Amino acid sequence: MAGASAAFSARAASPCAPPSLLPNRIHPRPHCKLWVSPSPTWQEARGHLRCQEVPDSPGASSAAAAKPEGLRKAKLPARARRDKPQPHSFTHRLLVAALKGHSGSVSCLDFSSSGKYLASCADDRTVRLWSTRDFTAREHRCLRANVELDHAELVRFSPDCRAFIVWLANGETIRVYKMTKKDDGNFTFTATSEDFPKKHKAPVINIGIAETGKFIMTASSDTTILIWNLKGEVLASINTNQMNNAYAAVSPCGRFVASCGFTPDVKVWEVCFGKSGDFREVTRAFELKGHTAGIHYFSFSNDSRRMATVSKDGTWKFWDTDVEYKKQQDPYLLLTGKCEVTEPCHIALSPDAHVAAISCGTSIIVYNTRRGEEEERFVGVHGQYITDLAFDTSSRYLVSCGDRAIRVFHNTAGYRAVVEEMETMLKKTANKATRERLEQQITSARKALAAIYGRKH
């Protein structure tokens, strides 16, 4: 996105308290009472109160007659607010840290391509940046970017880590923030002077930036995926023809966009550019076929050569997508595993493709991808449904969010998978240098496991 920095003129982002949503005066009708639903609708949550007719009673009639009309006052409840998630207690021997700083529900996580930072956004009108180096520290400091007059539902880093984009909940559009590093190592955050234009007609479910920095993707819950350039101009519109989109994403290599939904397949397109960097077309690449019901979620490995999917049919699948699709070669199904599926459901494939983590409701189950066996189970991780799940770029940590906290776990299943894979390779090689390298990797993984399980909690 560095090449597009000139297109982003800046304005300072500053916190702003929300304006009062209640009118200055409310004149209740006679024999009406103000009523707030125990489960308020969005209108009520924004301060629009409902009136409910109640039958007259002798007491009410006499009270009405005793006081003149102008002297009776309605006792109003406090302005309706979004319920804040309650603190949730969770402990586990593999829990590295609980990152606490948000005052609202955290909805999205994203690691920078450098692996140094984790971005999170919540309905408290802030985006926070956490240093991954501090995950194992006692204190977890973060940098805060304020979202003016709105809050972010989704956040994504630019490839060069000099900017990030957010999807605005109320504005229903993309806003770009530039990150400027100060002498003390901290950042200042500056929002662009103009947000992207509104184009979607349905709620947006995900956004992404290509690692190449050539395009931005937005996907909505109907069947629409839009491809944008960095200036906020639409390059292409994709109709997925999947009845509805459940999820969509840009591949880590930056070449592909993919979607899943009501139909039992994942569709993948290539976004094509010319040698000079000019956009050409979006063309169908390949499909993942094999599930018997709609697909909730999918995930890529870091090199985009592997994918994992989880479906309503109660299975998750592991795929080899390193194929010559231009020669009509289809992806290979490597593994099918059974799993518990309750909505909302997410799947995250580790960058090295050794393990897959599936979240259902408030719990997480981790599987190895060699045999599909369950390796770890974390129950009741959050006080609310898990909203995002991701591995860090090194595959050392698994991170989840769902209430006000972000929880970080050791990826012990990944270390065990490395040991198993390296031992298998060690038996097949006679080259001395290769054997030494494999033995070093095995020793390193075993030391990491010993340190994790030897840690006192």
How would you describe this structure to a colleague?
- The protein has 457 residues and is mostly beta strands.
- It folds into 3 domains: 2-12 and 84-410, 7 Propeller (Methylamine Dehydrogenase, Chain H), CATH 2.130.10; 32-68, no CATH class; 419-453.
- Helix content is 11%, strand content 40%.
- The chain has helices at residues 42-45, 58-66, 412-428, 432-453; strands at 10-12, 32-35, 50-53, 95-100, 106-111, 117-122, 126-131, 142-146, 152-157, 163-168, 174-181, 187-192, 204-209, 216-220, 224-228, 234-239, 245-250, 256-261, 265-273, 279-289, 295-300, 306-311, 315-320, 332-338, 345-349, 355-360, 363-368, 374-378, 388-391, 397-401, 405-410.
- A 5-stranded antiparallel sheet has the order 1-12-11-10-9, with no helix packed on it. Strands 4-31-30-29 form a 4-stranded antiparallel sheet, with no helix packed on it. The chain has a 4-stranded antiparallel sheet with strand order 5-6-7-8, with no helix packed on it.
- A hairpin with a 3-residue loop joins β22 (306-311) and β23.
- The longest helix has 22 residues, at 432-453.
- It is globular.
- The two termini are 42 Å apart.
- Mean pLDDT is 84; it is low at 1-81.
